[in-house]
Amino acid sequence: MHLKIISCNVLFREVCLAAAYSENVIDMEFLEKGLHDEPDKMREVIQTRIDATDEKLYDAIVLVYALCSNGLANINAPGIPLIIPKAHDCITLFLGSKESYMEHHNRVPGTYYYTSGWLERSGGKVQNNPQSSQDQVKLKSKYQQYVEKYGEDNAKYLMEFENSWVNNYTCAAYIDVGLVEFPEYEEKVRHIAEQNNWTYEKLTGNMRLIKDLIDGKWNKDEFLTVPPHHKIVPSYDEGIITCKLL
After folding, report:
1. Which of 55, 47, 62 is nearest to 7 (CA)?
2. Per the count of CB atoms within 10 A, which of 25, 35, 42, 190 is most buried?
3. For position 166, what pLDDT does the model report?
4. Where does residue 185 rank: exposed (0-12), middle (13-18), buried (19+ CB within 10 A)?
């Protein structure tokens, strides 16, 4: 297959490695990490890049993203399919499955996750208190989703119940997917943990999902295939995302 990859540059190393070993013909485009702080802008930029793709050259467009605070909600497929992992955020991609992410999240719910790409693509501005920007955007987006689906009173209750841990991170975790040893990155995350009186944990990552995504192994449990002229929508269930006709 001939695939167009549009990816967050946080996954630059992993995507390039997977593409190098793939039997598919791959063209890649990477977008800046900072778009995650503005989901509406991220949606606009990604859609613009999709619409600029020459459909005659490709069998599909692969988005190496997750739902990302609804940043990919309402993204629509052109005349060729879109492929996207079924994931809330990219931590699922770095750990290799939704199950691995949830296992760690349930075991240490107050964890803030770091990767080599996250540290490299932060423009030298690694936040020691990530609650102040990234999570505030996520919480606001999720709250609006719940208001639309369940009403304001129920939305407030759900947010308080689900996110009571967010105001009190307890752990900084560095995910190592095994590409290159970065002791200085690990030390940076340790330092962040110390500054905030958090514990530190090093997690072993897994590139399986990223490789399957690039290799075209799109099983329905882990990847959403969006047919032409359909759009991505949140499913508000364990499937995370689905699609519907424009």
Report:
1. 62
2. 42
3. 47
4. buried
Look-up: residue for tokens 């803030």?
112
Residues 123 and 193 in one domain: yes
Domain housing 173? 92-204
Q: Are residues 83 and 52 in the same domain?
A: yes
Torsion sign across C-alpha atoms 194, 169, 117, 122: negative
Tell me what pLDDT residue 143 has.
76
What is the number of structural domains in the chain?
2
Q: What angle do CA 150, 154, 157 make, to 5 degrees?
A: 140
DSSP state letters, 59-89: SEEEEE---TTTTTTT-B--SS-EEEES-SS
206-237 core/surface letters (b: 16 or more CB in 10 A; e: else)? bbebbbbbbbbebeeebbbebeeebbbbbeee
d(CA 197, CA 210): 33
Residue segments in the chain with a per-residue pLDDT below the cut of 50: 124-125, 131-133, 165-166
Residues 35, 108: Cα–Cα separation, whole Å:
27
Cα 38 from Cα 109, distance rounded (Å): 25
Q: 164 and 72 in one domain?
A: no
Query: Rounded CA gap, 15 and 115, in Å?
Result: 14
pTM above 0.70, yes or no: yes
Contact 21, 42 (CB under 8 A): no
Report how far residue 72's alpha carbon sits from residue 62's, in angstroms, rounded to the nearest whole number. 13
Same domain, 221 and 158: no
Query: Do residue 220 and residue 200 come from a single domain?
Result: no
Same domain, 100 and 187: yes
Q: Are residues 130 and 162 in the same domain?
A: yes
